[in-house]
Every structure is written in C-alpha cells, then in structure tokens.
# Entry
Amino acid sequence: MRHLLPALLCTVPLLCSAAPPRTVTIQNRTANVLRGVYLSPASVDAWGPDRATENVRIKGKLTLPLPGPGCRWDVRVLLGNRPGEQIFRNRDLCRNPVITVDGRGRFQRGSETPRWN
# Structure
C-alpha cells in the first residue's frame, strides 16, 4: 500500500519528469578560435578530457553538459592560434552557467584573475 502513492503520482507526467541536464555555455569574445574546453570539479586536481566537440569560432559559443554533480567547477579554455589558456577557478556554474573568454587575460565578471600561459 505504501508504494501505491508514488506509483499514482507518476501517472501525472509533470510530477515525474526528469530535470533537464545542467550545462555551461562558453562564449568566445577573442580574435582566435577556441580549440579546447576542459571542466573539472573545483575540488579535483585533474582536468580530464577535452569536452569541446568542435572549435568555438570567433564571436561564437558552445554549450556543453556538465560531466557531474555539484556547482563549483574549474574551467580551462585553450586558444587556437597561439599557445595560451585562460583558466577560471571555482566558478559557480549553477548560479551563472556562462563563461566569457575575452582574450585580454581577465574575466568579464568575477574577481579572480585568470592566468595566461
């Protein structure tokens, strides 16, 4: 009998629909294509695989699913025409799921200074 109520609630589609996948959008505001995007939970010291399925064109954007739970992520973006990277540390992608790469070696928003290598 106690399993009857959840079963009845699932007959109403709105109550049983799964949450949409969480995503991050990478916006390219540089004069170069972006050739790599790496995502890592902020508590992990490894980048893992390149998540970009394609290069991000100049003035383009790419939306990627977050590869795991949690809100705090480190994001590493590689520039295409020169050996450079912009790293965004400990970003709350639940609150602001957009990363803007501006090519000037600084954030559009936030207080942390990214580094260029």
